[in-house]
Amino acid sequence: MDEPAGYYCYCFDIFWILKFEKLGFKEFCFKKSLFLFHFGGASCNNCDIEILDCLTPRYDVERFGMQLVGSIRHADVLLVNGSINKKDKPRLLEIYRQAPKPIIVIAIGACGCTGGIFAEGNTFAGPVDKIIPVDAYIPGCPPKPEAILAGIVKLLNK
Amino acid sequence: MSKIIPIGPYHPLQEEPELFKLYCDGEIVKDIKWETGYNHRGIERLSESKTFDQAFFLVERICGICSTSHPFAFANCMDEIAGVEIPDRAKYIRSIIGELERIHSHLLWVGLAGHFLGYNTVFMWAWKYREPILDLFEIITGNRNSYAMFKIGGVRRDIEEHKIPGIQKVLDSFKKKNDLLTGAVMDDPVIHARTKGVGILTKEDIINYAAVGPTARASDVAIDVRKDDPYAAYPLVNWKVITAKGCDVFAKAEVRLLEMYESISIIEQCLDGLKKTKEGDIEVEVREVPAGYGTGHAEAPRGEVFHFVVTNGSNYPVRHKVRAPSYVNIATFKKSCVGQTITDATISLAAVDPCYCCTERMAYAYDYNTRDKILNGEDILKLSHKKTEEIRKKL
Amino acid sequence: MVSIKDIDNIKNYLKGDIIETEIKSATRATVTIKKDALIRAADYLFNKLKLRFIIASALDSKKGFEIYYHFSNDFSGLVANLHVILPKEKPEVESLTGLFEAANWIEREMHEILGINFLGHPNLEKLISEGNWAKGVYPYRN
User: Of all helices (H) and strands (E), which one includes residue B23?
Assistant: First the structure.
């Protein structure tokens, strides 16, 4: 990762947070369809398949215009699940830095919210909110797809 | 010019770091290296701080897709250490849960393999047909994914009489849908062209790498823990082990699709068996676990799961060793991927059905000489879709 | 019975190298051997008796570092364990990768969690823990 570009992104982030938030920029950005990006930490993948289940014909998140994208640069929402490993932590920070602001961060599952059953393990590096700022928590082990959709919609309506 | 292509997912959703590095020369893969550690949660050490009852909840969450197989093997292991024989009704219930999980896991694999090949419709259909099975789980156990049904000496919840006709109805409608899916996958000439002759693992390779599960059965090595060392209700019902001679990706798909029919037949026989046993007789009380050690294994959708527990008379295990089937199956990639093109290598990785939690995925492509990134995960997926399109135009 | 026949064959082949045999049931047995006889025993089990290697488990106990090598006979359902005890001061034993490739990864893992040295292993580097804990720290030691 080349340093100068990263530094400028960081400066822009601070500038954006201080200036644009007040102008209603965020509400404008999230008015229409959202693109979701999923980051899986060290998880058991129950939550991952429930998130994938949202795409499938029964819960069909695409009818709301939401779709899962392959690159963080295109995303409006960052879904994080899994208890974060010592090795995942720098990756998560990097992803958050690369994400175009404004971005909503949602911690999914018991492991994402608090570390769950793996919090006492020897490679645990803190629940998600110790690493990056989180906007919403969706607890459950795993949370049902309806709960995930309800959580995202509730956050948007706020 | 040699390139390193780290490879990973068969869907662009997983963002977890390097799993494989493919060293490529042009289009052909020359070598493969595995780098990992991103999913290590220290479960074996955590298990030493949990009592045996609590350990079942921990063990379930090793893997979400084979969420029953780990407690199954652990329960077999603890029943052996404690020296108990569980009642027949508990055996039938354990087998029903195990087989339902096999169906849902194979459907998941079919969907993902279809998505990777470019057949998004297969992905959507397979996951749509999974939903009634997950509903069944919710009716029987209360949760779609982590069931908490197992305990030492039996099961936690019973399947009541009035639920059985509902289960039977779902299975009947699933049989028809499975016919549709199997026909669509096995008779398609483009899938034949893409998967036959790809990712070959000979019988000698299987024995050398000690591979298990459908990976081994597709190379005509008939190993299946349910037949070799019978446990639960498997010796009480009639069923057969499915093998195939192809040794390639197509054979692995064939084995998985046909196994689903066997699973349906086993569940129906177990439901009949439930009617013969007394309702409520689902556990044997175990007061204490003696000192010693024990081994337990079970057949997960991906192969043999093995647990080894050492006890010392207290309520906590001294050592709990877990071996998931993907641990031995992934090592076979060295044989099946070398010599293939990049796109074929990825479908042969997918065919072994690595369990996400035992494996991690990401896809970037690095240039071997300069270490610059050239391709990322979406590009590799698009390469695969493009190849399918080209084959379709030719046929 | 077929499975007990396997154990009798092992006992006859290894003779003086066996420290203890424990037969728990028709399908579960453990043979404790001296660590110098490990390669001979594993070779006999894998190549002559055609057993499948399941996995190896290592633990740290009062007797030293114990390693159980689990083998399975897929025709009779026997799970036969080879048990080796290594001294705490110098835990090292020969590697089985020369016999079968399946031992490669598990020996790397046992090396990084307990610090056991496997002589003759082609590349004894870290498998699962790179970056998760420091060099020289063996987290599963008691």
Answer: strand B20-25
